[in-house]
Specification:
Length: about 575
């Protein structure tokens, strides 16, 4: 018994001694937990990124489910710490050091005769544009050039009011029609309405020309009908003029695009207010054309990790375009045909050296996945703005019911931004890229999606310094620098090489002009505006003109304004709808 008591006593003494130690350990743990709540998390562990830490970097799209995306996409996370401030090693984030050596030049040559000399009586050209605001803009630009080729009077273009966007706006509600007419008066005669001919109104002869129709194509196909019918209406007029033309015709394109097409005063004034409010927030700002709307994602056929819900939703939208083949998301990603996710865009910009304090204006429609999709971008750049967040509903009321007017506001802000980021290569991106080249090579960033994709897949295996270095290397040639694109490469609206001159000696300028003329393969040395006799036996190669309407048997005195789209089968919607922003 005594032995048992001794053993019991041996146990009671250590238990008493451990009480102060346990209390100290408990206090230590409480202090550690409190410290975790007080100290700010690193950016890579920001609460807004929590939804992306356990998924693929391509996955944050669905705001209302799609839980199976974790297993389907793989479990990846941002593994590096991103510096809060921009890189101090990066020069010219907001401009190009070579930009001062180049300038826009669109004046005509002495060979380009005045429209009073070239315009022939009883020749009227009417066109009906197609698509969204910026696709219609390309049609308007080319319509002026076609009128010049045909020596015809142009009737102010009719805008597309029946397609996907259902915008009832006419030309004068979007653009300043009076300025459009007066500023081009020496180039092309333009009237607001078709006048009476011989005391009566003529019904226009409807035609549709092939895409990329050359100057000779118009002289061979359209001019004979114009001489006979006197009034021609070209329908679905988008991309109906060749990319390469004579130098003076290319410069006319630039005069229309960069000088003659002005938005109406209400649109421009509201756009200027938005710019001012961005400037009040920051000296410099980025404009991001995100293009992460449901229809864009559905059209691309890409997959962003939203599981069966995403496949079902986007698949239903994709059925709208009956000519699209079955999608291959992995192939689309590898080929760079998929828009980057908002998170990927943010990582690219931070890697290029833009700091967390930079303000970004997001030009976009409905984002697929809503706030949840934007959360990773907002974590990287907390200062995100849209026209809706920096203006009131009352201010936007005159524009909000019209898609083209809302798109015009975004266009104005993007054009004025210090850096413009295009997350796809649609019409707005191309036109703004060309415009920013023409007006001083303002910083314009296009993600090199094809090369960035494998980098995003492998980001968890590298440091931030290595990732940033790779992004810098891959984005060379995609930053809007002078001479990034070779002359003739891409759409002329994106690369208006004929209208960009270099400040250099006369000898070099003359040499450059000679090379440009060789590139354009000018067929005649005659003055522009004096068309050659059509050669019907030597017509340019192109798609067959099966859509051209047969000549009308009799001329009525009124134009019934039949919907032109009813007369022809719909074309490939890849250009007509989703890319016609």
């Amino acid at each position: 018994m005594a032995q048992q008591r001794r053993r019991g006593g041996q146990h009671t003494c250590p238990r008493r001694a451990a009480l102060p130690a346990a209390g100290g350990l408990l206090l230590f743990l409480l202090a550690a937990v409190a410290l975790l709540y007080i100290s700010p998390p690193p950016l890579s562990d920001h609460p807004a990124l929590a939804s992306s830490r356990g998924r693929s970097v391509h996955a944050p799209v669905n705001s209302s489910g799609g839980g199976s995306s974790m297993e389907e996409s793989g479990r990846r996370k941002i593994s590096f710490r991103i510096p809060r401030s921009g890189s101090t090693m990066v020069d010219h984030l907001w401009d190009s050091k070579l930009a001062s050596k180049f300038y826009g030049c669109s004046n005509s040559s002495n060979k380009f005769l005045d429209s009073n000399i070239t315009t022939q009586p009883d020749r009227y050209l009417m066109i009906v544009t197609s698509g969204g605001l910026n696709q219609q803009r390309t049609g308007i630009i080319d319509a002026v050039v076609v009128a010049r080729i045909l020596n015809a009077t142009l009737v102010v273009p009719k805008l597309d009011q029946t397609s996907f966007w259902k915008d009832a706006s006419n030309f004068s509600q979007i653009f300043d029609a009076d300025w459009f007419i007066s500023s081009l008066s020496k180039d092309v005669k333009i009237v607001k309405e078709l006048p009476e001919i011989g005391g009566k109104l003529r019904v226009p002869h409807r035609m549709r020309v092939p895409r990329k129709c050359t100057e000779r194509c118009y002289l061979n196909r359209v001019l004979p009908a114009l001489l006979k019918k006197h009034v021609i209406r070209l329908t679905k007029f988008d991309y109906r003029l060749a990319n390469r033309l004579q130098t003076d015709l290319q410069k006319l394109r630039c005069r229309v695009n960069y000088h003659a097409l002005r938005f109406t005063a209400p649109i421009q004034e509201m756009g200027d207010k938005l710019i001012q409010r961005m400037r009040e927030r920051s000296k410099y700002f980025i404009a991001l054309h995100l293009r992460f709307e449901p229809d864009m994602l559905a059209f691309s056929g890409c997959y962003y990790g939203g599981g069966e819900k995403e496949r079902r939703e986007l698949g239903a939208i994709r059925k709208r375009w009956k000519t699209l083949h079955a999608s291959n998301p992995d192939k689309g990603r590898r080929q760079g045909r998929c828009p980057l996710t908002p998170e990927e865009v943010g990582l690219m910009l931070r890697a290029l050296g833009y700091g967390k304090d930079v303000h970004i204006y997001v030009a976009s429609g409905e984002i697929y996945g809503g706030a949840r999709t934007l959360a990773p971008l907002k974590a990287l750049f907390p200062n995100l703005h849209t026209k809706e967040t920096i203006s009131s509903k009352e201010e936007l009321a005159p524009f909000s019911k019209y898609s083209s007017r809302m798109a015009a506001l975004d266009f104005i802000v993007c054009d004025a931004s210090d850096a413009f980021v295009a997350n796809n290569n649609g019409n707005m991106a191309k036109i703004l890229a060309g415009r920013r080249r023409y007006f001083g090579h303002k910083r314009t960033i296009r993600p090199n999606a094809k090369r960035l994709y494998p980098l995003f897949l492998n980001q968890e295996n590298m440091s931030w310094a290595a990732f940033s270095s790779k992004v810098h290397m891959l984005q060379k040639g995609f930053l809007g620098e002078p001479k990034e694109l070779r002359p003739g490469r891409g759409e002329f609206h994106e690369n208006p090489y004929t209208c960009i001159c270099e400040k250099t000696d006369d000898k070099t300028v003359a040499k450059s002009k000679s090379q440009n003329d060789q590139l354009l393969n000018t067929e005649s040395g005659n003055a522009i505006g004096v068309p050659a006799v059509p050669n019907h036996t030597d017509e340019e190669m192109g798609e067959s003109n099966t859509e051209e309407e047969a000549p009308a048997e009799k001329e009525d005195t009124v134009d019934t304004e039949v919907d032109d789209d009813v007369l022809f089968r719909p074309e490939d919607p890849e250009l007509d709808q989703i890319l016609s922003d």
